[in-house]
Task: inverse folding
């Protein structure tokens, strides 16, 4: 009898344990098998925060939206983000952590050229696709098997700027550039394409990342005989200082900036001195001014409205680059039907007709950016806002 009672009790206890276990398991978050990790190392703080902050916000907003719609291939995305503050050494460390510890299947990030280039060897060695959000052409030229990018290149910026100068009869330019990764790269690209663009660089000055006054360099350009226009190749606070110094010196030459200043923060920092500046940039900044039949308009307007509603801040092209990178990755994952990094890489390279905030992307095995010069719009700052240049 005792034995029977014990057996009965044991049965009830095991049944209770099983029921509790089932409830416990149901209450747990989705298992690793139900999620897929993607990673990012961004300059969320530090001197390049105007790049990384909107990039991070964009990735979080749209990962949440994608997950709310069921995720990708039936699995939710888990976003792992690190803040490298624009430090290349930190970016490499975080990239290593993303692939070795976090086991991400892809990386979208690298706010600056320096951080990106530090991350490239990690992605290549780990065979993990890496979509950079930085501008220099060196990121994709020469082509690296697992590395892609969404922003237009600095070489394209030089070509677009010089074409606009020629159209306006401006053939002699003074260039002032930053000595950081992007500024130096764009300077070198502009020097390369100047001769084939019919433009002559007659003055060439540089400044360091911590310089707070570019008056001496700008004075040299001002005093150089024959200068018809001025080009500043850089991003961050440097270009705003350049613009304020230009105004202080009474320089009235037409001024061009790079796509590295394509955010409202540049206009705010430069103030009235930014008036009249021309620069190449993505259509995103003038989304509401695009023709109704422009295929980019619904994408650019939709992103701009979502970002501004979610953050309460004006849209920038830098957040747009993150949107393009994430959506391109998601589409590649869907086509691959897999979370295998190599299969995802292969599908990213096959991207065709993908319309993003930066333009229409058509990737190939020899082009890991996929944008042509037509994706750039020439903009001008008028009354403290972006307008399409005449």
Result:
């Amino acid at each position: 009898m005792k034995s029977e009672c014990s057996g009965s009790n044991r049965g009830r206890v095991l049944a209770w344990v099983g029921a509790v276990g089932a409830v416990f398991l149901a209450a747990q978050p989705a298992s690793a098998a139900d999620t897929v990790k993607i990673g990012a190392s961004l300059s969320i703080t530090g001197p390049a925060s105007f790049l990384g902050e909107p990039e991070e916000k964009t990735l979080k907003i749209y990962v949440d939206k994608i997950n709310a719609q069921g995720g990708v291939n039936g699995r939710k995305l888990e976003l792992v983000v690190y803040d490298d503050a624009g430090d290349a050494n930190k970016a490499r460390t975080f990239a290593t952590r993303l692939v070795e510890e976090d086991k991400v299947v892809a990386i979208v990030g690298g706010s600056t050229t320096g951080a990106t280039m530090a991350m490239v060897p990690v992605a290549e060695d780990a065979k993990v696709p890496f979509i950079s959000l930085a501008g220099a052409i060196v990121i994709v030229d020469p082509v690296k098997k697992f590395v892609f990018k969404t922003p237009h290149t600095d070489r394209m910026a030089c070509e677009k700027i010089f074409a606009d100068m020629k159209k306006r009869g401006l053939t002699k330019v003074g260039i002032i550039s930053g000595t950081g990764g992007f500024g130096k790269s764009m300077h070198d690209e502009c020097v390369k394409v100047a001769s084939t663009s019919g433009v002559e660089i007659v003055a060439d000055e540089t400044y360091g990342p911590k310089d707070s006054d570019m008056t001496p360099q700008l004075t040299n350009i001002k005093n150089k005989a024959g200068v018809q226009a001025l080009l500043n190749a850089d991003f961050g606070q440097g270009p705003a200082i350049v613009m304020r110094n230009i105004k202080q010196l009474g320089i009235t030459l037409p001024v061009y900036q790079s796509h590295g200043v394509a955010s409202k923060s540049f206009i705010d920092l430069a103030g009235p001195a930014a008036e009249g500046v021309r620069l190449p940039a993505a259509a995103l900044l003038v989304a509401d001014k695009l023709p109704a039949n422009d295929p980019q308009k619904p994408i650019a307007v939709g992103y701009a409205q979502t970002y501004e509603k979610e953050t309460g801040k004006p849209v920038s092209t830098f957040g747009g680059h993150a949107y393009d990178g994430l959506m391109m990755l998601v589409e590649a994952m869907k086509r691959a039907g897999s979370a295998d990094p190599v299969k995802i890489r292969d599908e990213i390279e096959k991207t065709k007709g993908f319309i993003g905030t930066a333009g229409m992307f058509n990737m190939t095995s020899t082009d890991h950016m996929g944008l042509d010069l037509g994706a750039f719009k020439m903009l001008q700052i008028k009354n403290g806002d972006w307008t399409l240049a005449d």
Notes: The radius of gyration is 25 Å. Confidence is low (pLDDT under 50) at residues 1-30.
